[in-house]
Amino acid sequence: MEGRQVSHYRVLEKLGGGGMGVVYKAEDTRLGRSVALKFLPAAFARDPQAVERFQREARAVSALNHPHICTLYDIGEHEGQPFIAMELLEGQTLKQRIAARPLAAEQVLKLGTQIADALEAAHAKGIVHRDLKPANIFLTARGQVKLLDFGLAKLLRPVSEATVTETLTEAGSAPGTLPYMAPEQIRGESVDARADIYGVGCVLYEMATGQRPFPETQGPRLIDSILHEPPTPPSRLNARVSPGLESIILKALDKDPERRYQSARELRVDLERLTLPAQAATAAAPARPRLSRRALATLGVLAAVAAVVLGLNLAGLRDRVAGLFAPPPVVSIAVLPLANLSGDAAQEYFADGMTEELITHLAQIGALRVTSRTSVMPYKEKKKLLREIARELNVNWVVEGSVRRAGDRVRVTAQLIDARTDQHLWADNFERDLKDVLTLQSEIARAIAREVDVRLSPQEQARLAQARPVNPAAHEAYLRGVTEEDLGKAIDYFQQAIQLDPQYAPPYAGLARVNYFLGLFGVLPPKEAFGQMQEQAQKALQLDETLADAHGWLALVKLHYDWDWAGAEQEFRRALELNPSQADVHHDYAHFLMAMNRQEEWVTESQRAVELNPFEPGLNTCLAWHHLYAGQYDQAAAQCQRVLRGEPGYWWALINLAWAHEQQGMYAEAIAQFERSFKEWPDSSLALAGLAHTYARAGRRQEALKLLAQLQEQASKGFVPAYDLATVYAGLGNADQAFAWLDKAFQERSAFLVHVRWDPKFDNLHSDPRFTELTRRIGLPQ
Q1: Is the Cβ–Cβ distance between 778 and 750 less than 8 Å?
Q2: 153 plus 254 within the same structural domain
Q3: Are 36 and 121 found together in one domain?
Q4: Lowest mean pLDDT across 45-59, 222-236, 524-538
Q5: Quick one: 269 and 120 in the same domain?
Q6: The whole model's pTM is what?
Q7: Would you name the residues annotated as active-site residues?
């Protein structure tokens, strides 16, 4: 082309070329000025729709008049090949300037602000670049940014699985350059201005570190990284990157467009704001004024007056001043379900279990309030804004991430986001052998604590640092047990884990948990259930004294079976010391406080459990149960109805609602709820006895007696808690039989017996001296 005449342009020399075409320096013979001619790939000329789009896009781009956008002068065609005539620039591309070396922070901010300013102007006219990268950003000899190739990426054919893996310098390949493409571009979705924001994030990252956010060179691996993995924090590659700049870069690179900067203007403002402190620091410091003797004397008098005011605490001033120096509030945080990137749907349990373990490790830090796993799991399938999730969970920090398991290696990526501002504070990758997975979890927990500026106590540091290696197969079996809803299958997994690694403590605590529910709800006799539970909890603590769950299960044995009140409270307090965010322990501690006649404390503790695990139906229903036993029947019914709106068939909520309706005198409604509960748990003696008691209270004696006979038949074939039979006789008004069965409940140590004083089904027995004697024999506070 050199020396040839193209329309009214005389081609002088070739300047360069790439996927967007070849560029020549030329002379505009009409206006006598130098221009750059870009000839687009010949493939476009054979596509009439592409030519039409090109002409339409060129007209829009030519309307842009901005100092940081390369001006488009003219479009034309030469021998069937489209070309563009544009401003000729002297200098170098940003790619050449970077040359794999990071730029100074001042340069990054200056150039980034100019790029954002140019995008702001283009986006205001509805024009999206779609291919931002250092090679498309030119730096003039005066150091000014000029964006090249605006809108040209739109000419290329749509993304498909094939095009994203093609050589991206080839004409007609994917619309954009793969290493700088936003995730939605790679997925072939429609893009808007936020795709350019992502591109700016890539450019800022490369200016700050000297390398791309995702440096992989293999197409499939690069695509996977862009779609699923957070970039390495820039400060790890260049220690001179400030936290403020890092936060801006990571927010621009968020994989979800909803959580990126929503406009180039927002990005520009943040970059400018970060530049201002540096400028202010260079300003001359004002001269320090000198105080006269009279001024010093006046200050002395004012100080004396202030001391008197604070000493007397006038108008509560001392308290308000003291509040300024109070310890910082507890940091609230939620770990969203870790994504399973193993490429195997059967590994979902592994990702869910790793989520549970990360939550457990974080919850060991007293200054953190960590939302429980049950409440975060509903967000696994929901696409919601982080701010919305944070508001629903009442947290100010959110952790997102993924798990990838390959052979004997596991890799966890995690990023910490300030949900109030959508700022990405930190992101990192952690990779270990499976046997060191507990060490990996501890490292993540400590890193997150450090990033939210939480100081660990020496005890917390020691606990998080003492993770032992674990048999990978045992750990896998344990995770299956933790995430298994079927209690029988959960037992099998925990036992399998113990067989594989007898020195691994958590599976013993897992078995104790299962036995607790079997004993509490009368599936197994108390001696069997709580006896096994005690052995399992003690074995877990023998292996790991810092296991909070095991202390909690041992506390429940001491509460429901040993009736060792001091020992129970000691274990509960130890469990909460080790894991202040363990919602289940707060909830179980409320059971203890109920038995100890500490009503205000028990409802408060139950509410605290719900705050930590707001969407867990069991804890929410137990809050209703505590209202019920506190005589707050309307609150109990309302709480159950809230649970049932989310879980319409939840049997425990149905039973508690039935009990509440009975105390409200709404017998028909109570009976209906009991009958609904049988559909979920047909063999529940608890519900059957409750229905019989309600029949008796409603005057339907024959129906109550029929159910009593059914319960007695069940008892002849298997275990039925004596406590349940006692409730039926109490409802029938047969005090002698009620006390006879309560005595049997005393002998077998029925789990609910420690709450007999507060169970409204026995209210009609309170005036009988035998009831007082029963509570004395149990050892309940009189």
Answers
A1: no
A2: yes
A3: no
A4: 45-59
A5: yes
A6: 0.63
A7: 131
